[in-house]
Inverse folding.
């Protein structure tokens, strides 16, 4: 077995999910027409007994035949009542099993027999990233087994209802593996999950990145424990909702996973530009439209991903976008980044439309930095049905400058740029499962301060990757200058995130602001930023991003390097 490479087919060929679940209701209550339950049911049989699964379940009191949703949270997270409410409010019965297992300060968790103790997230160790001696001895196998038995539990309890699954982050990887091995799902949605776990730290377009060192173990993991291996076996429609700057996977490879999904199944793809571990309001809208179509049988047009190519147009660098001809496009956006092989830290700049080319194509201006050696581009389009889709990330080496090439700039942001390249910093507790944004309106907004001057603000904090972009990167001995407006006293935390040898480190400067009806200018040197060990930042060159956060409203404008 040690050198046996198990594919998804061979790995799961002898799996028995037919054993009765033997449900136990631990507690139950009704609240505003929704019944909430904490339950236990049994999972797969191991040599030391069956897995005892803990889960939270919620359903509308009426009707009894509503569609059913299996929600798989991120690894390290457990069943979450707030997340249950998020989906129940849309008319679904929702089961959320715990698969992380034993955890401090709680008794409500899935109990794994000692022979598979590595299924406990806190005890996973090498079983999370290595298939030793085979893919069957990984945490992923046990987590998919929990998902299989959870799906079977729902199928038995609601035999006439459609069943779908939504997986979040590591739960998304598990959801794809479930979709490839279980035939009773009506749809599967992967949220911030891209596959290719074995390739973490090896950038797809890295010039000098070390190649993945292949050996028998790597082949075993890639073949049977890595989520993309299951894509071709998907037995239901699949929606992938990804964020371009996700730290968990290489966004450049996310579309490779999508391309592998069984072509006989309906499938589509969306990128949330500049987000990390969050899909934004547009992605959330896609999620529920997809569920509406495949679980509620509503008429919803699901577009195919956009197609994007990089070409010359009248001697200038441009992007051509082709749309799904079966739908009506309401808007298209193209985003460009330069040089950076690390997708998690790219600065994505929105590009200007040059012209329409017929009914189903548009041409966008790619004004890249004249010193850039490579350009990355993707498009996203929204249709009249409300559904938005994206393209793959296209890449082109630049062998020359173009008439529309741009020179180096010291201006990281001006309110004249609108939102610029800012994105929310950390969704945190303000977002459901740290993934789904709550509240109305845009999470990043422009607000007017004194003298009619606007500044940028977000209650989730602001993050800007532009500081590491080749066109804007600060030089040696540079300072950072910006203007602030806060009507009330506030503390603004300014953070510089760096990376060295794969290790990230944050350097923080806390500004105590008195407040008042005026804009104030601030100049910060690298030494003003300190690490957790009180080590000063050496220089701004090499920063991954700069972020701003405050518990109070603070507007930012005119961020420049001097």
């Amino acid at each position: 077995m040690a050198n046996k490479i198990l594919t998804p087919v061979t790995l799961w060929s002898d799996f028995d999910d037919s054993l009765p679940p033997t449900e136990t209701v631990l507690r139950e209550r009704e609240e505003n027409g929704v019944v909430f339950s904490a339950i236990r049911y049994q999972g797969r049989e191991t040599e030391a007994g069956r897995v005892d699964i803990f889960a939270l379940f919620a359903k509308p009191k009426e009707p009894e035949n509503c569609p059913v949703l299996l929600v798989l949270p991120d690894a390290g997270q457990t069943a979450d009542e707030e997340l249950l409410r998020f989906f129940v409010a849309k008319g679904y019965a929702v089961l959320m099993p715990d698969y992380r297992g034993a955890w401090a300060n709680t008794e409500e968790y899935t109990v794994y027999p000692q022979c598979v103790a590595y299924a406990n997230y806190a005890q996973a160790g090498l079983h999370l990233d290595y298939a030793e001696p085979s893919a069957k001895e990984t945490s992923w196998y046990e987590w998919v087994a929990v998902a299989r038995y959870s799906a079977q539990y729902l199928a038995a309890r609601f035999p006439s209802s459609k069943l779908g699954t939504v997986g979040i982050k590591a739960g998304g990887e598990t959801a794809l593996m479930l979709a490839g091995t279980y035939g009773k799902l009506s749809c599967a949605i992967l949220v911030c999950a891209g596959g290719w776990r074995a390739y973490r730290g090896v950038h797809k377009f890295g010039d000098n990145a070390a190649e993945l060192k292949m050996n028998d173990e790597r082949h075993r993991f890639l073949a049977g424990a890595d989520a993309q291996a299951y894509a071709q076996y998907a037995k239901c429609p699949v929606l992938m909702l990804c964020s371009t700057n996700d730290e968990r996977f290489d966004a450049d490879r996310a579309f490779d996973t999508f391309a592998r999904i069984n072509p006989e199944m309906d499938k589509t793809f969306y990128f949330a530009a500049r987000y990390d571990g969050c899909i934004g309001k547009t992605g959330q809208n896609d999620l529920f439209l997809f569920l509406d179509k495949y679980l509620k049988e509503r008429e919803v047009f699901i577009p195919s991903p956009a197609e994007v190519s990089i070409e010359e147009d009248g001697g200038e660098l441009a992007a051509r976008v082709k749309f799904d001809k079966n739908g009506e496009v309401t808007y298209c956006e193209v985003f460009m980044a330069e040089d950076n092989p690390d997708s998690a830290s790219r600065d994505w700049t929105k590009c200007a439309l040059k012209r329409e080319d017929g009914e189903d194509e548009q041409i966008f201006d790619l004004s890249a930095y004249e010193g850039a050696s490579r350009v990355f581009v993707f498009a996203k389009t929204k249709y009249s049905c409300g559904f938005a889709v994206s393209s793959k990330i296209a890449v082109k080496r630049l062998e020359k400058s173009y008439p529309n090439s741009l020179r180096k700039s010291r201006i990281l942001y001006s309110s004249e740029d609108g939102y610029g390249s800012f994105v929310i910093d950390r969704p945190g507790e303000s977002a459901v499962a740290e993934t789904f944004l709550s509240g109305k309106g845009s999470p990043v907004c422009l607000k007017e301060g004194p003298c009619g001057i606007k500044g940028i603000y977000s209650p989730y904090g602001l993050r800007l990757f532009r500081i590491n972009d080749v066109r804007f990167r600060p030089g040696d001995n540079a300072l950072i200058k910006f203007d602030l407006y806060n009507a009330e006293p506030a503390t603004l935390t300014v953070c510089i995130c760096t990376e060295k040898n794969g290790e990230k480190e944050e350097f923080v400067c806390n500004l105590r602001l008195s407040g008042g009806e005026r804009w104030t200018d601030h100049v910060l040197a690298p030494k003003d930023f300190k690490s957790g060990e009180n080590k000063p930042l050496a220089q701004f060159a090499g920063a991954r991003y700069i972020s701003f956060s405050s518990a109070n409203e603070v507007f930012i404008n005119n961020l420049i390097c001097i």
User: Anything to note?
Assistant: The CA atoms of residues 189 and 239 lie 5 Å apart. The mean pLDDT is 94. Residues 307-397 form a domain with the Immunoglobulin-like fold (CATH 2.60.40.10).
